[in-house]
Each structure stands twice: as C-alpha cells, then as structure tokens.
Write a structure and sequence with these properties.
By secondary structure, this protein is an alpha+beta fold. It is built from 7 helices and 9 strands.
Length: 220
Amino acid sequence: MTACEDSRVKPLRKAASAIVARDGDGELEVLVLERGSSSRFLAGYVAFPGGSTDDVDARLSHDWFGSTDEVDRACAVRELLEEVGLALTSSGLREANGLGLEIISSSPPKAEQLREVAHWVAPPQVPTRFDARFFAVRADHALRPVADGVEASDVWWASPRALLEEWRTGRRKLYWPTYYTVVAISACASVEELLELRIATREPDADELERLPRSVFWQD
C-alpha cells in the first residue's frame, strides 16, 4: 500500500476483505463495491467488501469458528453482512434480507469457506496503515447484494478484465492493493482457480510509480 510520504509511522490496523466470486459466462466474476462518499479512507474507490476488525470480532470468531484466532475471517463475514447484505453460513452465502448477525450465528460458516489468497501489510510511510487479509468466498448466481448506502454507495458483479478496462479508461479508481489483487485474479478462469490462488504481495516498483495513475498510490 503506497501513499504520500509521512515522517510519522502510523500504527497498523487489522483488517479483512472478502473476494466473493462466481463462475460467469466463460470468465470469473467478483463482487465489488464503490466506497461511500463519507468514507475517510478512499471515498469513491472500488474495493472488495471489508474493513477494520472490531472489538466484536473476537467474540464472533469464538462463536462462529470455535477459536479467537479467526478474528480476520470473522471480520470479513461481518463486513459482508453489513456492507452488502450477504450472510455466509455453513451452507454458503445467502441474502440476509435485513436480518442481523443471528442469521449467521444460527448456522456459522467453517474457516475453509474463506480461503486466504492475499495478505497486505502497509509500509511505514503510509498515512492509513492496514494489516489486511483477503479471503476468497464462493457464490452462486442467484445472490442479489444490496449496498448499505453508507460504507458502500454501490455494489455489482464484474469480471476482473472488465473492471481493469473501466480503470484504464478512468471510470473507476483502484488503490494499489486492490489493483494488484484484481490483476492477479484476472488470470483465474474459475472460482476453483481463485480458491487455489496465493498472491505474493509487494510494493510498486519505480516503473509502476511512474507509469500508473497517481490515484493508484495517493488519495488526494
């Protein structure tokens, strides 16, 4: 994660995101959202559902996964519910239809339903620093996500290829970790391939800093 230089080292904030994916018409499709205009961090950018871990996530980790070691997964599941109205249960993703955490607690997911595909740790110079884990989650075609209107102003299904084309034409903004992740998963032809993917994350090199749009690295 790269942004403007800052001489003060900011503390790391734990976070998690869910790469919800389904098999499309000959190519993979993923669920993405546009961050709400009131967001202090990356307002208007396209991202995967997710956010910072909360105090409640330790309890949810224990209740859902039987261990407090799965705080990141619990966060990803909670954020999916809060931001786009999808509940991950033991039988898979389903529409929450306005229900709260009880819809998940009545049939909690298993850890293997969230496959870790990437781990991003922001370098010291980034003003907003996250230690973020990205998890892949399988979805079917019947799901209709609904943006909460606050953290997410819009939500939709897109192929990584189409999303990158919209970014290239300036219609969408992608921050470096999201951009790099989307490029990596664009090589996946199916959900099965995504679930087996492990992304070796890295910071941009000098050529990328020069060649890619400023918005990929700096939130102006």
